[in-house]
């Protein structure tokens, strides 16, 4: 489904006077603080977040899955859905493929289709946490860490295959997340499992094109509940450091134990130039994969405060991070959920851009925690939504993406085109 520009312009026109008034007021407030609204709007327009191919369908748990209909059953449909999200939000300019769920048949046709929606291909993702129907050997007891060399080779070969698909599509990075671990004490030799994982990753790293990056993701638990081979950011960093200059840690917001100081992890990894990517979601208990900003918007702002500090530090050696939403949509319309996440991410980014960094550093040097808190919370409490709306309107997006989505009856149109029982591949 494609939205006609005139349709979007007509919807925007109704809300444009109120937006102009709100933006003019905020622009004046920011100017009084020495901030240029137009510069922030430009940064917001440039800030793009990848949508994973599997996230366009209804999520689920091991207890059930309740489809909302109109799900994208093919890679072409998924690209079309991300294209629609991008047209509305002007912030979802990339799609991240997961193999083997989304193996492109005709690579050139897929590239042309993505280009027609102004989309690029972000990191490609391997899958050795599931057994596929035509798979010779099982990953039940691990993949890259498996005791059997033949299983490890199968997992390594799969990752190399994923790289080749990504290279053909124009991607520049590979994300590796492993479910490898153990559910019972004594089941796994921790040292050997780590060494086998490192050896396997070294083989994958050796197959990377010279201009590619490898992102090593971590997770403290699940699906194994006693140990995970790559269980935290320190293990991820240790592996990335041993692999080489083009290997980095990848931080997923949900992949932390409760009350973990994620912003400190972000700052540390950026300080040593090893933060490669970031997966956005929110959680209450663990890896819940909820809508970004649904529960902890202030934490998201604090994380972005460190991200912006690292990105705008001229002495930093950290590359520009890869951004992706990694959330499950069990109850909401997946498209609406993703639009909410895109909004929350850019709100936190915009708020972080308002922080007076010189004043904050002076407060720190003077051991003034009260003033430091005031500086951060003044930025956080600023309603930056007019900046986001201005960025969208300048890029021919929607002033109110979810409002436009509903006025255009997008889900109804998708159900009419794809059926009420279509099921998307993926989780």
Automatic annotation (TrEMBL):
Keyword Metal-binding applies: yes
Domain annotation Xylose isomerase-like TIM barrel: ranges: 104-289
SUPFAM superfamilies: Xylose isomerase-like (SSF51658)
Superkingdom of the source species: Bacteria
Keywords tagged on the record: Isomerase, Manganese, Metal-binding
InterPro entries named in the record: L-rhamnose_isomerase (IPR050337), Xyl_isomerase-like_sf (IPR036237), Xyl_isomerase-like_TIM-brl (IPR013022)
Pfam families: AP_endonuc_2 (PF01261)
An example Gene Ontology molecular-function term: isomerase activity
Official protein name in the record: L-rhamnose catabolism isomerase
Organism (species): Echinicola pacifica
């Amino acid at each position: 489904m494609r939205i006609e520009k005139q349709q979007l312009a007509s919807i925007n026109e109704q809300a444009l006077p109120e937006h102009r008034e709100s933006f003019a007021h905020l622009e004046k407030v920011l100017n009084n603080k020495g901030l240029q609204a137009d510069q922030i709007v430009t940064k917001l327009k440039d800030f793009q977040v990848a949508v994973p191919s599997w996230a366009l369908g209804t999520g689920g748990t091991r207890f059930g899955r309740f489809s909302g209909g109109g799900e994208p059953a093919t890679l072409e449909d998924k690209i079309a859905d991300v294209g629609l999200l991008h047209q509305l939000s002007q912030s979802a300019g990339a799609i991240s493929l997961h193999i083997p769920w989304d193996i492109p048949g005709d690579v050139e046709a897929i590239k042309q289709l993505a280009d027609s929606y102004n989309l690029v291909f972000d990191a490609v993702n391997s899958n050795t946490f599931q057994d596929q129907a035509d798979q010779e050997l099982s990953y039940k007891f691990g993949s890259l860490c498996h005791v059997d060399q033949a299983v490890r080779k199968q997992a390594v070969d799969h990752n190399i295959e994923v790289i080749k698909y990504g290279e053909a599509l124009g991607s520049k990075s590979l994300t590796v997340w492993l479910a490898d671990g153990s559910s019972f004490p004594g089941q796994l030799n921790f040292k050997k499992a780590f060494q086998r994982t490192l050896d396997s990753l070294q083989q994958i790293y050796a197959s990377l094109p010279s201009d590619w990056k490898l992102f090593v993701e971590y997770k403290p638990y699940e699906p194994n509940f006693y140990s995970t081979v790559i269980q935290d950011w320190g293990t991820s960093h240790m592996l990335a450091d041993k692999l080489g200059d083009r290997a980095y840690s990848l931080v997923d917001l949900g992949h932390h134990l409760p009350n973990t100081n994620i912003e400190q992890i972000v700052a540390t990894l950026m300080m040593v130039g090893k933060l490669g990517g970031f997966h956005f979601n929110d959680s209450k208990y663990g890896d819940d994969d909820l809508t970004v900003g649904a529960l902890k918007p202030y934490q998201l702002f604090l994380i972005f405060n460190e991200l912006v500090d690292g990105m705008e530090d001229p002495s930093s050696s950290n590359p520009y991070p890869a951004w992706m939403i990694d959330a499950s949509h069990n109850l909401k319309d997946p498209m609406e959920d993703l639009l909410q996440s895109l909004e929350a991410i850019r709100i936190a980014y915009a708020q972080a851009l308002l922080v007076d960094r010189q004043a904050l550093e002076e407060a720190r040097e003077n051991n003034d925690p009260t003033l430091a808190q005031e500086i951060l919370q003044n930025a956080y409490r600023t309603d930056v939504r007019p900046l986001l709306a201005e960025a969208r309107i300048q890029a021919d997006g929607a002033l109110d993406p979810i409002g436009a989505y509903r006025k255009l009856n997008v889900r109804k149109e998708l159900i009419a085109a794809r059926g009420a029982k279509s099921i998307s591949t993926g989780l």
